[in-house]
Amino acid sequence: MGLVVQKYGGSSVADAEGIKRVAKRIVEAKRNGHQVVAVVSAMGDTTDELIDLAEQVSPIPAGRELDMLLTAGERISMALLAMAIKNLGHNAQSFTGSQAGVITDSVHNKARIIDVTPGRIKASVDEGNIAIVAGFQGVSQDTKDITTLGRGGSDTTAVALAAALDAEVCEIYTDVDGVFTADPRVVTKAQKIDWISFEDMLELAASGSKVLLHRCVEYARRYNIPIHVRSSFSGLRGTWVSSEPTKQGDKQVEQALISGVAHDTSEAKVTVVGVPDKPGEAASIFRTIADAEINIDMVVQNVSAASTGLTDISFTLPKTEGRKAIDALEKNKGTIGFDSLRYDDQIGKISLVGAGMKTNPGVTADFFTALSDAGVNIELISTSEIRISVVTRKDDVPGAVRAVHSAFGLDSDSDEAVVYGGTGR
Question: What tens digit of pLDDT does each residue of 133-188 get?
Fold first, then answer.
């Protein structure tokens, strides 16, 4: 048996009973002959509570000190889990991200992993120990300061360690039984997907599916690390994410026409009004946004008005970056030459994802017909070979997701999807 990396989210280790349940699952894998490395998130809502506490002390906490504070959550989880495993008669050692060799850039609160040097982890498991690693954190290559990886950072930690340790699989344990055709909290008849390709999962993750984060899937695809998404609250087989289809019993799992419907209500829309329609203007706008270290999603430019020679450019971005984007653009208003800015944070994005749509021309028509029948008005449209995304009003999102899910025959005829925890992380 080879080495497996298991990641447990905050809902899985939310309390003492959860930690003991996770310890039993890890020990079971060890008894089955595997070497085990477990990556843990902070307990329950600990990270959010620490952020709230920091903001009570300081309206704008310093990035370095906020990272130092937030990493305490995972350190609590890893130590308690190691204690629980030892209580079951197995040796366990806990490691912070820096002790595990997770090396990052110097950006606080959303650092990116540069390298993983897991010498201490490998030595520990070779000695027969179970290694418990604090997710979500690392150490800056340049400053040697503690850093955090942003939301979903524990998933990325787990996949990065799996790649560095040449693991057989990276198991992501959460509070649902796998990846579903839609968020089971919105679509109760969503179906669990047995296998999904890295490409489709990347599109779903980028479109708002929260069960796996985009960076985690991107890392897994780069190093070809199979991911098994499953629940820590049940023993059911979950969803395999890999480059090649897996087998379920004697049945080959095939690529579906449509993998699923994702939605995202965490974005806002910025419209730059009255932009001169000439070469270089769009470049100036998006260079300003890039210099502010803001990631954007969808971009639409209107047709130029013949009488004025001006156009409008709209783009979406995370709500948390909205104020920064507006401030950066206003600061460069004279250089860019636009008239005004509009900001709208009451939007939502609905995305249909599936590799099969490349060879099925009716998919686009069916998608827009379903939205029309549901009375949903479309504000922006973006497409790729395997994805169609639209922006609409935030209040219309739940109904739109259910309508599209039903229109493409994705509703389950059997039991409703089970959500064991409350957050999906």
Answer: 999 999 999 999 999 998 889 999 999 999 999 999 999 998 888 999 999 889 98
Contact 306, 269 (CB under 8 A): no
- 197 contacts 254 by C-beta, under 8 angstroms: no
Domain ranges of the chain: 3-255
Buried b (16+ CB within 10 A) or exposed e, 212-238: bbbbbbbbbbeeebbbbbbbbbeeeeb
Q: Give 394-397's long-range contacts (Cβ < 8 A, gap of 24+).
A: 394/265, 394/346, 394/347, 394/348, 395/346, 396/348, 397/263, 397/265, 397/348, 397/349, 397/350
Q: Could you tell me if residue 243 is left (phi over 0), alpha (psi between -120 and 50 degrees) or otherwise beta?
A: alpha
Q: What is the pLDDT of residue 425?
A: 36
> Which residues lie across from 253 on neighbouring strands?
none
pTM more than 0.85: yes
pLDDT beyond 60 at 389: yes
Q: Which of 87, 96, 111 is nearest to 21 (CA)?
A: 87
Cβ–Cβ < 8 Å for 285, 336: yes
Q: Report d(CA 421, CA 425) in Å as an integer.
A: 9
**Among the four given CATH numbers 3.40.1160.10, 3.10.310.10, 1.25.10.10, 3.40.50.2030, the one describing domain 3-255:** 3.40.1160.10
Confidence class of residue 309 from pLDDT cuts 50, 70 and 90? confident
Cα(191)–Cα(179) distance, integer angstroms: 8
Q: How far is the C-alpha of 131 from the C-alpha of 257, rounded, in Å?
A: 40
> What local confidence, expressed as pLDDT, does residue 302 receive?
82
Tokens 């800056």, residue?
140
Predicted confidence (pLDDT) per residue in 38-76, tens digit: 999 999 999 999 999 999 999 889 999 999 999 999 999
Beta pairing class for 310-318 and 340-344 = unpaired
In terms of C-beta density within 10 A (0-12 exposed, 13-18 middle, 19 or more buried), how is residue 324 classed? middle
Q: C-alpha angle with apex 268: 264 to 274, nearest 5 degrees?
A: 140
